[in-house]
Structures are given as structure tokens and as C-alpha cells.
């Protein structure tokens, strides 16, 4: 990020910290605003305009002024609501007075720490920070498992003001003394509910105990579960609660259709839906890593260019598959819920639920990958007789019945008996356990902004 004129910085002074474990000042109503009304620096506004954004989303309109004022935030927002900008923009703004072009690492300590549950989400957040801050001299880096650690260590030693990380990888860097958290002024816990689901609480507690007590903390979660409220009451100071989307909300721009299909016919159904609808880019969700790999192999046999991403794939393999998918070289990206967390594919036309998720809230997360930024999209779900209970739970959550149709297959299904996609246990089970298992292979990836 290049340097911006100091005179264009309009930072709002931080409010004094007051220890208060009670949730307060809940905000739920939409706020009419434009980005230039927040007092953001011209260099940041320029970057926002270059990204094509003119009007803030509800979470941005409500959260940005609060973060700029120095308040802790407890925000409930789904993926796809623009929450990344709701914290990355004010972080950049608040750090601008300390931006400099010095070559000395001591002049570039970690001042903002953003923690995410998965590599993909970390990389996506880092890309946003880079895009919004490219006209400033603030530095950022992202660290997560699965790639060579040495380049990241070198980057951290040169100094970065904004660090995006998965918890386990960050602790590795702390142990290697390549990450010093003693000057962190702002902390973001992004998708905190998912971090707790994946068993990261012990790592989070270790990290939080390493940070200065006088800091601003922003917590974002899809839901305010009792566990999330307990975490917030322990580590947040008099937070302002912002709720813009309940976990059962679905995008009106997404057409949702359920097809009543026998389990053994699901693969043929996917192929037929791709062909009949002319879909050249679709994410197909499976409930397990094994099922995702099997389905990708079988789709290839049926002439569909496919690739699987899940927790057993190396980070390099996952990045290569995702890049190929974005370039249009892969038609079907077969994914598990954890692996797909944080994926942001512009104008994705459709998602297919090969397996209905065991957790109804995962359905909302899945279909939120399409129909973004005002575009339309299709969410096509395959429901076998033994998944009727899951379908009922989804309809209960979203408070409306789904359109259930019968799909007449053009030809008999192949691989009926030996290539079933879904298996109970799923990705989440594979992501639990020790910290080394959760961060998978323990590499890093760096980004200089």
C-alpha cells in the first residue's frame, strides 16, 4: 500500500475503555449512508470506488461509525453481507496516523490482528484489506497452514501493521518469535461461532492472553449462541451489539429448488442439472471429505471438469483448484462446508447441495455463495428419502416451505452402488482435535500490501 497524504486522515478519537461485561446498545435498524459520510481518508475512499462500491451495506453502515469511535462491537452478520469491509475499512482509517514508509521493522509493529477459522477466509480477508489499503503505506500479511513457512517468517520480520491469521498458525509464529502481539490495538474475531465449532477456544484464549488489555475488540458471528455470549462477556468491553441478519434469513435473489431424487441417482442428477441449465460454474456441497473426492472423480468420468476441496487437501492443492475455478477452467467445485467457508466467487450462478446438510444453518451459509451483490442465483438441492428430516429442519429454520420438484432423469444413473457422496461425520469431525490437525500441515502464506 502506498503512502497517503497525512492531511487527509480524519480519524475519530477512540472512546475510553470501560470494563462492562453486559451486552448493550443493540442496533437493528438500517441506516442510510454513503461511504464519504464516515470521514474516511481520501485514499481509502478512492480504493472503495475502484472496487465499484458506492453504498454501504446495512452491517457496514451500522458498524463502521461504531468502530471508528473506538467501541467494541458484537456483530451478528451472515457471510455475504459485507462484514469484512465493516471492520477492515475502519481498521485502515484508525491506523493511518501511524502509517510510515520507514524500512525499520520497529516502525511497523502488529497493531491490528484479524483471526479467522479457515485458510480460505483468511486469504479472502487479506485480499480485501489489500484492496482497500493499497493507496496507503500500511503493511499487511496473512498466515495460515499448508504452504512454506519461511517466506512468511521473513515478511513478519520486516514488519506489518495488519496481520490476518488462523489461530494455530499464529501461535506457531509466536513460538518462533516472528509474531509479537504486544502492541496490538485492534482485534477482530471473524466468524467466531465457526472458530468455536472447530475447537479453537483454547487457542483463542492463549492468543487473547498475549494481547494488551487496553485494546478494541470486534467480534462477528452468524449467531449469538450462549458460548459466543460468554466469550464476548469475558473479552469485550461494553460492546455495541449490531444485528443485521438472523441465521435463518435467505437471500431473496436466490431461487431455491429441491429435487426429490433417489440416493443412487444423485450423481446423474448433478450432471443433468449442469447440462440442462447450461451451468459452467457451480459449487457442489457434500457432507464429507470422502464423499466430495468421490463425487469429483465420478463427475470427471461423466465428462464434467471437476475438482474437490476439503480438509485433507494441501493448501497448494486447494488454492490451485480455486484459482482454476475462478478462471472458468473447472465447471464443478465440489466442497465441504469448512473448506468452502470464506469463498467469495463473483457472480457465481448456482450452488448444488448434493447432500442436505445435517445442520440447517449450514444450508443458509451454502446458498449464500450465490446471488451476491444484487445478482441472482440458483440454489438446487437434492433430497433423498432418508434426508426428509433434514429438509424439514431447513424449512423450519427459514420459516417457509421449499419448492420440491421431481427430476426425471434422461438416463439411468452410473456408479449407483459404489460412489455415494454423503457420509455422516462430515468435515467438521475431521477439523477437530489437536491444534496441529486443525491447521493442517502448518505452512504459511504471505501478502505484502
From TrEMBL:
Gene3D superfamilies: P-loop containing nucleotide triphosphate hydrolases
Keywords of the record: ATP-binding, Cytoplasm, Helicase, Hydrolase, Nucleotide-binding
Residue intervals of the DEAD-box RNA helicase Q domain: 33-61
Recorded catalytic activity of this chain's protein: ATP + H2O = ADP + phosphate + H(+)
InterPro entries referenced in this protein's UniProt entry, alphabetically: DEAD/DEAH_box_helicase_dom, DEAD/DEAH_RhlB, DEAD_box_RNA_helicase, Helicase_ATP-bd, Helicase_C-like, P-loop_NTPase, RNA-helicase_DEAD-box_CS, RNA_helicase_DEAD_Q_motif
Membrane spanning residue stretches: none
Domain Helicase ATP-binding: 64-242
Residue ranges annotated as motif Q motif: 33-61
SUPFAM superfamilies membership: P-loop containing nucleoside triphosphate hydrolases
Residue span of region Disordered: 408-449
Pfam families linked to this entry: DEAD, Helicase_C
Any one Gene Ontology BP term: response to temperature stimulus
Positions with biased composition (Basic and acidic residues): 416-443
GO cellular component: cytosol
CDD domains associated with the record: DEADc (cd00268), SF2_C_DEAD (cd18787)
Every Helicase C-terminal domain range: 253-413
EC main group: hydrolase
Keyword Oxidoreductase: no
Enzyme Commission identifier(s): 3.6.4.13
Molecular function via GO: ATP binding; hydrolase activity; nucleic acid binding; RNA helicase activity
Family listed: Belongs to the DEAD box helicase family.
Protein name, entry field: DEAD-box ATP-dependent RNA helicase RhpA
Amino acid at each position: 500500500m502506498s503512502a497517503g497524504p497525512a492531511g487527509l486522515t480524519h480519524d475519530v478519537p477512540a472512546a475510553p475503555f470501560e470494563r462492562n461485561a453486559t451486552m448493550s446498545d443493540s442496533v437493528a435498524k438500517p441506516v442510510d449512508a454513503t461511504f464519504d459520510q464516515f470521514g474516511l481518508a481520501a485514499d481509502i475512499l478512492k480504493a472503495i470506488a475502484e472496487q465499484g462500491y458506492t453504498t454501504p451495506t446495512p452491517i457496514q453502515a451500522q458498524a463502521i461509525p461504531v468502530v471508528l469511535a473506538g467501541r467494541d462491537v458484537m456483530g451478528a452478520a451472515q457471510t455475504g453481507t459485507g462484514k469484512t469491509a465493516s471492520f477492515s475499512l475502519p481498521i485502515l482509517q484508525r491506523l493511518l496516523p501511524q502509517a510510515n514508509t520507514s524500512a525499520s521493522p520497529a516502525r511497523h509493529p502488529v497493531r491490528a490482528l484479524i483471526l479467522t477459522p479457515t485458510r480460505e477466509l483468511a486469504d479472502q480477508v487479506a485480499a480485501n484489506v489489500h484492496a482497500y489499503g493499497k493507496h496507503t503505506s500500511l503493511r499487511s500479511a496473512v498466515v495460515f497452514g499448508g504452504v512454506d513457512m519461511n517466506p512468511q517468517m521473513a515478511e513478519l520480520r520486516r514488519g506489518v501493521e495488519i496481520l490476518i491469521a488462523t489461530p494455530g498458525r499464529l501461535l506457531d509464529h509466536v513460538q518462533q518469535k516472528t509474531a509479537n502481539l504486544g502492541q496490538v490495538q485492534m482485534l477482530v474475531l471473524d466468524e467466531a461461532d465457526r472458530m468455536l465449532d472447530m475447537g479453537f477456544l483454547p487457542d483463542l484464549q492463549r492468543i487473547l492472553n498475549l494481547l494488551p488489555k487496553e485494546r478494541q475488540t470486534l467480534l462477528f458471528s452468524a449467531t449469538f449462541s450462549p458460548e459466543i455470549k460468554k466469550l464476548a462477556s469475558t473479552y469485550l468491553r461494553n460492546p455495541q451489539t449490531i444485528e443485521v441478519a438472523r441465521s435463518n434469513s435467505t437471500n431473496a435473489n436466490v431461487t431455491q429448488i429441491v429435487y426429490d431424487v433417489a440416493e443412487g441417482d444423485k450423481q446423474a442428477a448433478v450432471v443433468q442439472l449442469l447440462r440442462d441449465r447450461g451451468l459452467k460454474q457451480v459449487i457442489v456441497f457434500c457432507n464429507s471429505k470422502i464423499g466430495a473426492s468421490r463425487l469429483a472423480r465420478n463427475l470427471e468420468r461423466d465428462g464434467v471438469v471437476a475438482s474437490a476441496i476439503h480438509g485433507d487437501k494441501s493448501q497448494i492443492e486447494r488454492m490451485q483448484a480455486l484459482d482454476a475455478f475462478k478462471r472458468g477452467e473447472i465447471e464443478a467445485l465440489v466442497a465441504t462446508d469448512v473448506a468452502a467457508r470464506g469463498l467469495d466467487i463473483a457472480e457465481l450462478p448456482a450452488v448444488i447441495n448434493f447432500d442436505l446438510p445435517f445442520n440447517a444453518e449450514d444450508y443458509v451459509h451454502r446458498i449464500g455463495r450465490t446471488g451476491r451483490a444484487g445478482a441472482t442465483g440458483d440454489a438446487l438441492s437434492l433430497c433423498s428419502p432418508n434426508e426428509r428430516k433434514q429438509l424439514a429442519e431447513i424449512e423450519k429454520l427459514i420459516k417457509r416451505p421449499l419448492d420440491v420438484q421431481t427430476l426425471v432423469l434422461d438416463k439411468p444413473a452410473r456408479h449407483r452402488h459404489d460412489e455415494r457422496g454423503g457420509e455422516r461425520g462430515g468435515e467438521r469431525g475431521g477439523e477437530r482435535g489437536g491444534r496441529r490437525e486443525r491447521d493442517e500441515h502448518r505452512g504459511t502464506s504471505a501478502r505484502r500490501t
